[in-house]
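Feature request, filed as a ticket because there's no other form

It would be nice if the structure record came with a short human-readable summary line next to the tokens. Right now we just get the raw output. Example of a typical job, pasted below so the devs can see what we mean:
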Amino acid sequence: MNILLTTKERRCVNGIGALSGAELVYLVTAIPDGMSDEDLLREVLRYSPAWQGYASRVSAEISRRISRRSCEITVIYRPDNTGDHPAAREIKRAGDEIWTFSAGSTREKCFHAFSTQSYNVGGHRSPDPGLWIGWNGGIGSDFRVSGTDKTVPAMREKCIHTFEADQLTNVYKREVMECIGYVNLAPFHAWNAGEVLFLEAVQSPEFCNERGEWLVDVAFTFAISAGSEYNINAERVRVPPWHVYWEIAGVSGERRCEYLGRYVSRIYAARDFSGLNIGKGDSSGALRKRIRELAGGDR
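Raw output as currently delivered:
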């Protein structure tokens, strides 16, 4: 009988980067006539190494029968549960979710002020720019506005969702792809319709938890906008999230600014995010509880 390790394998690493689970596939040929499956599995187990990183050899199974005298056998390694340190084991479950956020700022060109104070120069009354910033004093075709850079808030949220490895089918991946670059059609997680822009999704390698379940983490990143409001010449213009306000400006005199046109444009289409199968809640507390239990008590 010949036993040969193939290149078919599945491996995972734990939180400290060490190998914590594996499935190795062996090709067995020239199986003796009359040999039982139990004896065959016992021989392959005896031939295979007892450990793969933190994972111990726990079982073997016939995964594919090729002919009467040849087959493939998968040897399964699972995390060692004898230690007390949770870092040596994966404790996640399918459906776990951890939500985090980052709030920062970005730069945006600004052409209007909420108010402007004019100061007379050389005894002459200064021209009134209205709410324009950086007006050159020109009228009509000579009118120009330079504006200034403005700091605006920028917020992102990230969801790390744990899936069963088999859930990440091509159908699901296509659903994810088709949602990128869209805003939410309906309320999503803690946000109203239209406030969430889906940016990206990144999958981790497969890993194995202490129950022997093969899982993957997928990190979803979203940008959040709550909309904005413009107050121009005492007129309020409400701009919904992920819409753009723009205008065609004109000037009728030195002391008065007016607009030839003011517009709010929608630049992202909306899509139903329910097919992502996330956003059901934050299980960070439950994960911390499991860690304490595995570590041997509440800390």
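Something like this underneath would help us a lot:
The mean pLDDT is 83.
The longest strand covers residues 148-164.
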